[in-house]
């Protein structure tokens, strides 16, 4: 393994992070334990297997190597482009025991996960951790996997975590054909195309910027979705029957994702009304990340994300009306594509030099609340069952990073016939996160009832 420069979006995630806003994504997996020693055995397995997974040995190292006049031109240019950046490289002192921890028995897995989610990963080591939580009931245990967003996006994190599970016979992913090595300067015959590409990129950047500016106009959100950071976290999880979601989809139209987003809108409405904040007239902006990675190809490094920005119809009283508005907004975003519109801000990271990420990262993080109000992301999971030490994984709750100034983030995954909602909130701003979790279940019931009538 050699050192690779961080991709632009990875570098952005690395520099946005602060002590109060760690930029790791996570998943809380709950396993059925066949013996009282299952959790300890799982911790031993995770540590032993991590040593054999190359991606888990990679640390991120900041680079500060300005060019010098004594270097040849090509070397000077390369060092200039890398100035202020970071590389992903093997950690010579990697010890998996530093990354896997067995905790005392827990009565509430989500309470323990919330405390751990508020703790940043160590930046001098490969930025990932696995926390094994034995259940006080003696018949279950949980594992909280944490991966820095600069190390992995959702698909990459899934690949790394799955490599630590029990071996399974899976098809080998198709590899991308190797790209031919290019010189420092382009072939002169390619210049017209490169110029057209640069102009297209500039036009797209202006389009995205204008869309972001428009998205801040006539804004009606809720103070409950923004907060002064406390540095603490809470998590909660909800399990919904996938058959119920398909039942709603077949009756009301749209996609499964449309239904899942509409459920979030309805749950927010219930939650805001019950806590006295009020929901009438509210349409908070939800950022819906869109992966640009091909799931069946082997492309291990670098976040490849764009996104859609939609208004959640929280102020709409009719549950089917909320679903219709979500479906219309998502269709409009899909027609435009993931490369345009306010949700595609992540693409602009590719046009910022490394030093710009270094200097502007903290400011960009603070500007997140001006761009969107709540993150609603979907994390893909395999359709087959996973095991660790022979113990089956029964539920898995994806957990998204919380942007600066935001009080809530929602992640959704489908696993073995169930939809798993993972909720992450600022611990001080949202002490009633469990009530929001219950509202998700209630909203599914409300939509089913509305479809039946």
TrEMBL record:
Keyword Transferase: yes
GO molecular function: diacylglycerol O-acyltransferase activity
Catalytic activity from the UniProt record: an acyl-CoA + a 1,2-diacyl-sn-glycerol = a triacyl-sn-glycerol + CoA
Protein name listed in UniProt: Diacylglycerol O-acyltransferase
Keywords associated with the record: Acyltransferase, Glycerol metabolism, Lipid biosynthesis, Lipid metabolism, Transferase
Pfam families cross-referenced by the UniProt entry: WS_DGAT_C, WS_DGAT_cat
Similarity annotation: Belongs to the long-chain O-acyltransferase family.
GO cellular component: plasma membrane
Pathway membership: Lipid metabolism; Glycerolipid metabolism; triacylglycerol biosynthesis
Enzyme Commission number: 2.3.1.20
Residue ranges of every copy of the O-acyltransferase WSD1 C-terminal domain listed in the record: 302-445
GO biological process: biological process involved in interaction with host; glycerol metabolic process; response to hypoxia; response to nitric oxide; triglyceride biosynthetic process
InterPro entries for this protein: Acyl_transf_WS/DGAT, O-acyltransferase_WSD1-like, O-acyltransferase_WSD1_C, O-acyltransferase_WSD1_N
SUPFAM superfamilies reported in the protein's UniProt record: CoA-dependent acyltransferases
Organism, as annotated: Streptomyces fungicidicus
Domain O-acyltransferase WSD1-like N-terminal: 6-259
The keyword Lipid metabolism appears for this protein: yes
Broad EC category: transferase
């Amino acid at each position: 393994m050699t050192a690779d420069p961080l991709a632009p979006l990875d570098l952005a995630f690395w520099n946005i992070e602060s002590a109060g806003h760690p930029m790791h994504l996570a998943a809380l997996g709950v396993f059925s334990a066949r013996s009282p020693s299952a959790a300890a055995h799982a911790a031993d397995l995770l540590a032993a297997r991590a040593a054999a997974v190359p991606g888990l040995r990679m640390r991120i190292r900041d680079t500060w190597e300005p060019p010098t006049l004594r270097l040849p031109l090509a070397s000077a240019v390369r060092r200039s482009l890398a100035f202020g950046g970071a590389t992903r490289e093997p950690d010579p002192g990697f010890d998996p025991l530093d990354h896997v921890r067995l905790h005392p028995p827990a009565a509430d897995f989500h309470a323990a996960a919330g405390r751990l989610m508020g703790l940043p990963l160590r930046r001098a080591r490969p930025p990932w951790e696995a926390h094994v939580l034995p259940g006080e009931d003696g018949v279950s245990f949980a594992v909280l996997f944490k991966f820095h967003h600069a190390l992995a996006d959702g698909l990459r994190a899934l690949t790394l975590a799955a490599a630590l599970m029990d071996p399974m016979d899976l098809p080998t992913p198709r590899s991308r054909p190797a790209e031919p090595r290019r010189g420092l300067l382009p072939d002169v015959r390619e210049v017209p195309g490169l110029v057209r590409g640069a102009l297209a990129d500039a036009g797209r950047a202006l389009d995205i910027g204008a869309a972001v500016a428009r998205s801040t106009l006539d804004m009606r959100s809720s103070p409950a979705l923004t907060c002064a950071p406390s540095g603490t976290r809470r998590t909660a999880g909800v399990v919904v029957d996938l058959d119920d979601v398909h039942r709603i989809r077949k009756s009301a139209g749209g996609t499964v994702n449309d239904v899942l987003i509409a459920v979030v809108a309805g749950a927010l409405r219930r939650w805001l009304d019950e806590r006295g904040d009020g929901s009438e007239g509210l349409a908070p902006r939800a950022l819906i990340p869109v992966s640009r990675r091909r799931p069946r190809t082997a492309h291990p490094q670098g976040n490849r994300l764009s996104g859609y920005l939609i208004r959640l119809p929280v102020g709409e009283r009719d549950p089917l009306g909320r679903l219709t508005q979500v479906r219309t907004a998502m269709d409009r975003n899909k027609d435009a594509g993931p490369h345009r519109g306010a949700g595609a801000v992540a693409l602009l990271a590719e046009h910022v030099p490394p030093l710009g990420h270094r200097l502007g990262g903290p400011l960009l993080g603070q500007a997140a609340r001006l761009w969107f109000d709540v993150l609603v992301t979907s994390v893909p999971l395999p359709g087959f069952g996973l095991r660790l030490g022979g113990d089956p994984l029964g539920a898995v709750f994806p957990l998204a990073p919380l942007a600066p100034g935001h009080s809530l983030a929602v992640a959704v995954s489908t696993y073995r016939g169930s939809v798993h909602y993972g909720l992450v909130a600022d611990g001080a701003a949202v002490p009633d996160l469990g009530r929001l979790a219950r509202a998700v279940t209630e909203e599914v019931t409300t939509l089913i009832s509305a479809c039946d009538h």
